Amino acid sequence: xxxxxxxxxxxxxxxxxxxxxxxxxxxxxxxxxxxxxxxxxxxxxxxxxxxxxxxxxxxxxxxxxxxxxxxxxxxxxxxxxxxxxxxxxxxxxxxxxxxxxxxxxxxxxxxxxxxxxxxxxxxxxxxxxxxxxxxxxxxxxxxxxxxxxxxxxxxxxxxxxxxxxxxxxxxxx
Length: 173
What we know:
The chain is α+β, with helices and mostly antiparallel strands. It has a single domain (43-167), classed as Lamin Tail domain (Immunoglobulin-like, Sandwich), CATH 2.60.40.1260. The chain has helices at 7-43, 162-167; strands at residues 44-50, 61-66, 72-73, 78-80, 86-88, 93-94, 99-103, 113-115, 127-132, 138-144, 159-160. Strand 4 and strand 5 form a beta hairpin. The termini are far apart. This is LTD domain-containing protein. Residues 24-150 form the LTD domain. Keywords: Signal. Residues 148-173 are annotated as: Disordered.
């Protein structure tokens, strides 16, 4: 004995299945967007700092490193010091497993070097460099010149302040 369904029931079932597939496909990118941001927190970091160069303002820089396997859009991200000087990344993608140096002085931007085009030094002998994404969320910070084991080389007491930053309520420096 066979049971037959009217054509309209079969059509409604097919439409319902197709609609559920579309809703599921549209929801997937939205749910995938959350974890991707968290991946930037571990993927992108401040790699080093060279402050107060006697040679030129271009000898003063902060290095941003992409440790991940995917390119990261840094457009709208900010790099700031403890006095509130802020550099905003304009249309810039950081390739996977690469670095870019943000120089204080003047120059022509490239995939390896960006320039703030400033006439005065930004990074002091004691300072903190803070990196935030385009929504102002904390990504990484590095401080130097505050410890008793300070060295006077390019990366003075380079340390990651991610935990300290969360303790102070995520305030901007």
